[in-house]
């Protein structure tokens, strides 16, 4: 075990999942940012949804403390899994057993993925209505 953090946190920090980016030009991709690089905490979450608005894939990039990177990794993994609880700050904090001082990282990640998901679903709605009906002439 590493000092200060449990094994699950270190697992997501040392081998984060779904790291990287998605090409917004592909369509139905939303991007959310939270944090401040000047304070050493910045996370970007990207989400691609299908025509019905369900998450297909997600990617994240984070700069900052161990807890921020671990929360980003776990949230990205959970969003793609598509089952179970949504990775809000409370769930992230509980699942990773974050210390109170690290709970701010979970809040930043939640803000970023919620913004990304809202943007992606908005883009999905540009070519499809809520019933999933294709719009004539859009090619989608």
3D structure, described in words:
It contains four helices and three strands; from the N terminus they run αβββααα. By secondary structure, it is an alpha+beta fold. Helix 1 (7-14) crosses helix 2, helix 2 (66-81) runs parallel beside helix 4 (103-127) and helix 3 (89-95) crosses helix 4 (103-127). It has a three-stranded antiparallel beta sheet. It has one domain (7-127): Sufe protein. Chain: A (Alpha-Beta Complex), CATH 3.90.1010. It has helices spanning 7-14, 66-81, 89-95, 103-127; strands spanning 29-36, 41-49, 55-63. The model is unreliable at 128-140 (pLDDT under 50). Helix content is 40%, strand content 19%.
Provide keyphrases for this structure.
single chain; 140 residues; alpha+beta; Sufe protein. Chain: A; three-stranded antiparallel sheet; 4 helices; 3 strands; globular; disordered C terminus
């Amino acid at each position: 075990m590493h000092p200060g953090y449990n094994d699950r946190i270190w697992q997501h920090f040392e081998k984060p999942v779904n790291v990287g980016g998605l090409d917004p030009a592909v369509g139905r991709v939303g991007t959310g940012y939270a944090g401040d690089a000047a304070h050493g905490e910045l996370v970007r979450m990207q989400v691609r949804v299908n025509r019905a608005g369900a998450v297909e894939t997600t990617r994240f990039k984070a700069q900052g403390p161990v807890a921020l990177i671990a929360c980003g990794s776990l949230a990205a993994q959970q969003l793609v899994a598509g089952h179970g609880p949504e990775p809000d700050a409370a769930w992230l904090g509980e699942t990773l057993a974050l210390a109170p001082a690290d709970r701010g990282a979970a809040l930043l990640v939640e803000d970023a993925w919620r913004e990304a998901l809202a943007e992606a679903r908005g883009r999905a709605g540009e070519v499809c209505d809520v019933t999933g009906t294709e719009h004539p002439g859009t090619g989608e």
